[in-house]
Amino acid sequence: MTASVATTMDHLLTPAAAEHHARLCELVGDSWRGDAAAWDRAGRLPAEVLRWCAEQGLLGAPLPAEAGGGGWNMVRTGLLYEALGRVGASLASLVNVHGMAAQTIARWGSEEQHRTVLPDLATGRRIAAIAMTEPGAGSDLAGMTTTLDARDGGLVLNGTKVFITFGGQADVFLVFAYADGGDVACLVNRNTPGLTIEPMGDVLGLRAACLARLEFRGCRVDPAALVGRPGFGLAVLAPHALEHGRHAAAWMAAGMLHEVFAATARHALARHAFGRALIDHGQIQSIVTRMGTDLEAARHLCLAASEALDARDPAAGDRVLAAKYFACRVLADHAEAGVQVLASSGVLESSVTARTYRDAKVLNIIEGTTQVLERMLAPRLAASVGRDA
Fold it and tell me: 105 and 14, same structural domain?
């Protein structure tokens, strides 16, 4: 494997896609490279970063052009997440959770929501977040206890959501709950009476992602704020949002792994121990080789998922699952290895390896844990062998 293969992915992309990716890496890197450690210490992204994402059109990149979005396909959108991941997981997560909510509204929202809500999300005038997770409902959303009840000619929301990414900074939430007609999703503005937002600090990773606890106590919800129809929440809307999130997380992990590989390789080439450069030691060669080849494999899987989504391939969902499963899993493995190789400098809070080591663990939990993805993928993979036999 040559260095050029490990450090770029131009050989996988069309010339237009490679140029698009190069522009994104330059745009995001020149603006924010090196700032992620400060964001982690502050526990949030500065307001100027959110404004910048909106001004650059990143928050609405995959949304329809008629709504004010960029109309990007999934390959171009995936490369955006890769470029954001190179700077930091929290920055990429902002665009991801906003996109999960906005894409769901774009696909399933009403005409009124398309007219009054979607343009603000496409241009970044408002930041959106997804409110699914509860104290007793994470991977198994059927355990939700949040309710949306009919009362006095309107709807009233009660319940608790936790670990809501960018819950501390979002302007509007796509909230999942149970109603008389079945599970539902609805839009709730940040300033809705009865909504209390509390920061959730001291987290292992995604420290700048402004995770929050949302308490809904008698929140009045306009019926026009329902997205889709009753029974759509967990069966249709949540899978749609999660597919977007998993696609983003896979590409994000590939970008983060690129940074870990670069830091590890540079250190192995420059540092000497026991009379030789680290790269000349067999154990280090094994680490660098595995890291570089897994980075290449992750990029292949991510690109295959994006292309399948663009082609509306019936197998696109499985390709997204495989990309998220592999890219996030190897990221965790190699972030740990990167810390080991960099040793004392690798454990510093400001180092890319330490930050990625923390963030990688979270990426293997959000949008479906490693074990949940294995549960979903194993029967499908086994069945595909049976069909081909």
Answer: yes
Would you list the DSSP string of 176-199?
A: EEEETTEEEEEEEETT-TTEEEEE
Residues with Cβ within 8 Å of residue 2, at least 6 apart in sequence? none
Print the domain residue range for 301. 234-388
Question: Residue 11's domain is classified under what CATH number?
Answer: 1.10.540.10
Residues 242 and 101 in one domain: no
What are the pLDDT digits (tens) for 24-76? 999 999 999 999 999 999 999 999 999 999 999 999 999 999 999 999 999 99
Say how far apart CA 335 and CA 323 lie, in whole Å.
Answer: 18
Q: How many domains does the chain have?
A: 3
- Give the domain CATH number at 173: 2.40.110.10
pTM over 0.85, yes/no: yes
Helix (H, G, I), strand (E, B) or coil at 216: strand
Q: Is 255 exposed, middle or buried (0-12, 13-18, 19+ CB in 10 A)?
A: buried
- Four-CA torsion 258, 87, 371, 305, nearest 10 degrees: -70
Cβ atoms of 183 and 230 closer than 8 Å: yes
